[in-house]
Amino acid sequence: MPLDEELRSNLSARRDKIVAAGGPRKTKERHDKGLMTARERIEGLCQEGTFQEYGAHVRHGCTSFGMSEVEIPADGVVVGTGFVENRQIAVFSQDFTVVGGTLGKMHGRKIVWAQDYATKNGCPLVGFKDSGGARIQEGIDALSGYGEVFYRNVNLSGVVPQIAIIAGPCAGGASYSPALMDFIIMTRTNAQMFITGPQVIKTVSGRDVSMDEVGGAEMHAAVSGNVHLLADDDAHAIALTRKLLSYLPSNNTEDPPHAPYPDLDLSPDPEIDRLVRSDASDPMDMHGIVKRVLDDGELFEIHTNFAKNLIVGFGRLQGLVVGVLANNSMEKAGCLDIDSSDKGARFIRFCNAFNIPIVTFVDVPGFLPGVDQERGGIIRHGAKMLFAYSSATVPKLTVVTRKAYGGSYLAMCSQEMGADVVFAWPTAQIAVMGAEGAVNILYNKELKAIDDGAAKQAKRKEFVEHYKAEFASPYLAAARGYITDVIEPETTRAVLSLALRKLLGKRELRPAKKHGLIPL
User: Fold this and answer.
1) pTM for the predicted model, two decimal places
2) What is the pLDDT of residues 410-424, one digit of tens each?
3) Between 3.40.50.720, 3.40.630.30, 3.90.226.10, 2.60.40.10, what CATH number should domain 270-433+473-503 receive?
4) DSSP secondary structure, 323-376, as one string
């Protein structure tokens, strides 16, 4: 017997009301601001026709403050599953047109459903954050909803990739959920993220600050380091999400989406020689070097504007997905500091959690000296790099291009930190410290005995060259077995590609324990 027309009409009317969300006027207001609706964001992310919604008819249970008569379509959040490039994701999108996208108990429960689905089915979780915060009328029930979301964010960590897209307001406690996820993408306009806004800061401290100063995308991408990727608008944020997912496995039991070239290309790349700088004081274009090594010259950089002295990102090496870390001598001479150590350690741990091989390019003169760095805890922050590399069991390949001094040499994945292969260019200098500093200590008496300034300078230069040749040469490190081989720069791509193919089957067991205690 066919479905009764009255029942069909009733279902259609209910669906239309849910899809209309806040209504045509609010939808137009969003479009006028260049914003997508919550459903448009999901439709833009998922392959056409693959999104299946959960909980569209869910209704809140709040009766206080006249809420029993208030209808909230989909309870202010669209939740479901879909496919991106034929791989499943769980997704939720907060709807600012419906009571400001505020989170109540049922709203939170819907997000929890998406989180639990991602756990059970081993698929990435993507969340569009666009909410006025906790639904005040629901009081502690709203806080409970946040707590359940946070708890699952932590349980999902290292199990499936979690991506947060800040596409509107994300204030107060709500900002902790994206902070607990793996990557935050934020739109440059129409989005804010903060614990306390300008008004609260003004009340408490008397200081006038703008929203951009405390919660803007540019600030979070360059200063706080909370934001990993900046997007121009909603459509760009969606494109970045799709690109990011293309490098990631669906869960921690799978390999990343490798597509190895059928035939390895082991031919040299003479063009890389143009970028090599033998003089340690001459800044070197590490971005250019990395891109010469990766397929199609493509590096999907993470945290581009934060701690620029360390480059991190994803790429492919003859079809194999890799995570890349590289010192950038064009910023702070490539020194490691507090922010770059945090940035690098977190990226390493993500790669390790999701079986992504790590390739490290070293050109580091040391940890950044300074009172602010010492008082800020450079010791414990720098130790995070040592901890992250040492605990990583994925294939680890290191290339020492030039400077590799002192503790920073170890912190950039030396053999002692578990690197599977360490290659060095002939320009490499591996030593306790730079030649100039070492000469000042080792030959201080001899230099003091020379009164003539020109003679002293000449002798200093002689000592420096002797130290470089005898104590900082890559051949000394090779002779002691600390590096795998000294290679020509133009063979870097070929050598790494071949070594990586051989390391894909790597297995490494560690002592049984709950977890290590990374320095904080």
Assistant:
1) 0.94
2) 999 999 999 999 999
3) 3.90.226.10
4) EEEEE-TTTGGG-B-HHHHHHHHHHHHHHHHTT--EEEEEEE--BPPSHHHHHT
